[in-house]
Design a protein that fits this description.
By secondary structure, the chain is mainly α. It has 2 domains: about 120 residues, Four Helix Bundle (Hemerythrin (Met), subunit A) (Up-down Bundle); about 150 residues, Four Helix Bundle (Hemerythrin (Met), subunit A), CATH 1.20.120. α9 runs antiparallel to α13, α10 runs antiparallel to α12 and α11 runs antiparallel to α12. The longest helix is centred in the N-terminal third of the chain and has 31 residues. The N terminus is likely disordered.
């Protein structure tokens, strides 16, 4: 979905979990409309309160028609954004506006109730603000990881979780998901080199067992006749095994609850995993469809 399409759709809803909006987009597409609704309700309450104090007991017809339009728009906002309490309060006001005459005191009290309902519904929506470089890195994930996601789609939820948790200052949890993505890459390469276990599926194999199998493949590869394919496979397999061995200590630490990772360490691990998975994606690009 393009940014322009997403922004057009965003006029009719709040951002969803995992969807990044800037403060500017929030203001333009939701917050300004919410402010308008609050303003209409507040003005209606103040005006009817003051008129009731001055002795005006019933709403004038012109005012009733104007309020009917305004509160129908308020109800539309509440329906679009699941403001359940405010929806009910709007329904009550519209019911009385559609059954004139309406007393000033009733509209005064109902608008006070609607204002409180809007505040209560709004407080149920919680937002986290990603700042500066963290927001930039999160926003660029589709572009910077497109090659990996295309070749190894099962890594995508792990990578997104690792980045989001890093941005939220949950370093250890971020490393956990980075290691899950890393293991998916390990299985991917093991399948390419036709690694198998006689007693279990690959998904049940230990990390060290998979690496030992790949190292055996590397030893066998070195004994093959020289040639460009052997050189490419040998260089690639040696490099990725070295990567995995260097990461294994971090993997064991997080999986066996031996260490806590801060956000700086988590980012370092994440970038290491990114380098590894990109190397795998480069080595095994998607096959071009036959024409």
């Amino acid at each position: 979905m393009s940014d322009s399409t997403r922004r057009c759709e965003s006029q009719f809803r709040w951002p969803q979990p995992g969807e990044l909006w800037s403060l500017w987009e929030l203001y333009n597409f939701v917050l300004s409309e919410f402010y308008d609704v609050l303003t209409v309700v507040a003005h209606a309450h103040e005006r009817t309160r003051d008129l009731d104090r001055l002795g005006t007991r019933e709403l004038l017809e012109d005012d009733r028609r104007a309020y009917l339009v305004q509160f129908e728009k308020a109800q539309e906002f509440c329906l679009r954004h699941d403001f359940l309490l405010a929806q009910h309060a709007c329904e009550i006001i519209l019911k009385w506006l559609n059954q004139p005459p309406m007393s000033m005191a009733r509209l005064r009290d109902n608008t006070a109730s609607l204002h409180e309902a809007l505040k209560a519904d709004a407080k149920k929506i919680k937002a986290y603000i990603y700042r500066n470089e963290r927001a930039d890195i999160l926003a660029s994930v589709d572009k910077s990881w497109s090659d990996v996601f295309e070749r190894m789609p099962d890594t995508e939820p792990e990578i997104r979780a690792a980045l989001d948790l890093w941005a939220l200052d949950h370093g250890t949890a971020s490393v956990f998901h980075s290691m899950r993505a890393c293991e998916l890459g390990l299985r991917f390469v093991a399948k390419k080199f036709k690694v198998k276990f006689s007693d279990k599926p690959m998904e049940w194999a230990m990390w060290s067992s998979l690496l030992n199998k790949l190292e055996n493949e590397l030893v066998a590869l070195r004994k093959e006749p020289n040639g460009p394919k052997k050189d490419r496979d040998k260089e690639f397999l040696g490099a990725v095994i070295s990567h995995w061995r260097s990461i294994q200590e971090k993997r064991d630490a997080v999986m066996h609850v031996r260490k806590e990772f801060d956000t700086h360490e988590a980012l370092s691990v994440f970038l290491h995993v990114q380098q590894l998975l990109r190397a795998i994606a480069d080595r095994y690009p998607p096959r071009k469809p036959k024409t």
